[in-house]
Write a structure and sequence with these properties.
By secondary structure, the chain is mainly α. It contains 19 helices and no strands. α12 runs antiparallel to α13 and α18 runs parallel beside α19.
């Protein structure tokens, strides 16, 4: 689980499962990661009012964090945001370590409001408690939102701080490398360092969702370097994954199809570009609504972040930590 080898973790875990607080959380988290969002949510709700939940705010909030992630992965954006607000307002959670993870989960949960204030509070929360690996995760998320606003120097500063703090995180390196490359792409740098960072990131990725994002960025850098064979190869991989319907979360599939449309247009394949653009437009505009409305229908953009991103023909996606840290030592009671 800590290595992000989730399919192996789930196979082994199914054979050793016992009904303990930790095992319930691991099972719910692995169900969510494996794409079984409904079952993950059902399991979280089953134990929400259990004796364990009443005895341990840490256990209950951990259930809530997994449910939040599953709701987002299921594209239930409105319910996810409402549930986040409910959790944040619960005073019993506000002095336990999991509360910092909840603040960081604003990155996942908030689709109509700015998550950055919560992310900055999360950094302060973890830094004040000496929780360096969790601080790194929060800094990585803050870097994403600063980068998407065009505040690239501040984004890079948070990313560098995250890199220092996440030296002990096994999966942290490929996330940092991808995001360094995205900052380069948003600076219109398609040099060897950008390409190398993404190749190293791809070599270290262990999650199918993250792999798709890195492949999208490799597609962007390859066709902008006029490396036609590589670009065609990455386009095929991105298209195969997007059309498989996995991951379920439709915003990342919209980003995949959009970037494929831009790629096919760049190589003169207008028919394929139209098909990909129509696929990108087929998803509900329930996330990043103003930005995607501008991309597809040329509606005006007002938010500075939307204006910044819209100036590029491509849309390079950042990565952040989504999985839930489960503290087995705190859940023995």
């Amino acid at each position: 689980y800590q290595l992000n080898w989730f399919s192996d973790a789930k196979r082994i875990f199914d054979s050793v499962y016992e009904e303990t607080p930790c095992d319930v959380l691991y099972r719910a988290s692995l169900l969510w990661i494996d794409g079984d969002q409904d079952e993950a949510i059902t399991l979280c709700e089953r134990y929400w009012e259990s004796d364990w939940a009443h005895k341990s705010p840490s256990f209950q909030l951990s259930l809530g964090l997994i449910k939040l992630s599953a709701l987002r992965s299921r594209s239930d954006y409105r319910e996810c945001e409402q549930f986040f607000d409910r959790l944040v307002a619960t005073s019993a959670y506000q002095n336990i370590p999991e509360y910092g993870q909840l603040l960081r989960a604003a990155d996942v949960a908030l689709t109509t409001r700015d998550p950055l204030p919560y992310l900055l509070k999360s950094i302060e929360f973890f830094a004040g408690r000496g929780l360096s690996s969790l601080e790194a995760q929060a800094r990585l998320s803050a870097s994403v939102h600063l980068g998407e606003r065009g505040q690239l120097s501040l984004s890079l500063e948070q990313l560098e701080n995250a890199e220092q703090a996440c030296k002990d995180l096994i999966i942290g390196r490929y996330l940092v490398l991808n995001n360094q490359a995205v900052i380069a792409l948003l600076s219109r740098r398609f040099d060897d360092n950008t390409l190398e960072a993404l190749r190293y990131a791809l070599a270290g990725v262990t999650d199918r969702f993250d792999r798709l994002i890195i492949l999208i960025n490799l597609l962007i850098v390859s066709y902008n370097r006029a490396e036609d064979e590589a670009a065609s190869y990455y386009a095929g991989l991105v298209r195969d994954i997007a059309e498989s319907g996995d991951p379920e979360e439709h915003n990342i599939r919209r980003i995949a199809y959009f970037n494929l449309a831009v790629y096919y247009e760049s190589v003169g394949d207008a028919a394929a570009s139209r098909v990909m653009r129509e696929k990108a437009k087929s998803f509900p505009l329930d996330y990043d609504t103003a930005y995607w409305s501008h991309r597809f229908y040329a509606t005006p953009v007002e938010a500075p972040a939307d204006r910044f991103r819209a100036q590029f023909s491509y849309d390079p996606p950042f990565l952040s930590f989504w999985h839930i840290e489960i503290d087995s030592h705190r859940l023995r009671f």
